[in-house]
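Curious: can you check?
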Amino acid sequence: TLLDPMCGAGTILIEAGLMKINFVGVEAFYNIIKGCAENLSYYNLPLNLIRGDVKKLPFENESFDSIVTDFPYLKSSKSYGGLNELYNSSLTEFERVLKPACRAVIVSNMDIDEKIEDVFTIQEKFYQRIHCSLTRRVFVCQKKG
């Protein structure tokens, strides 16, 4: 099962669902998760959604085969707490809920290599320039140990 712990409008979940991958999405904000549910319904996909906080995921240890998520860019996005807290706490939670030797794909608008390397091994890193003020970093990571 794939987890998107900051699912937003559900783009990653929709892609997973259309590929017949089991998924679960977590989102903190009611209005956003409501929109995500509408988007999933449009594609006749299951509403495997939980309203929750990425910094305290409501799952058992080692529950997921993969994590794919796109961190909020915080220019037009909402987030609880500060940016450092978001990255540090959520990455620790990703490590906790991911099964051994499994992978996470983490997208950010910042270079967060050091934060990621505290809990994961970065296998690959890609840059995707969106426009002059936004370049995404795509990290393919493996759980240590």
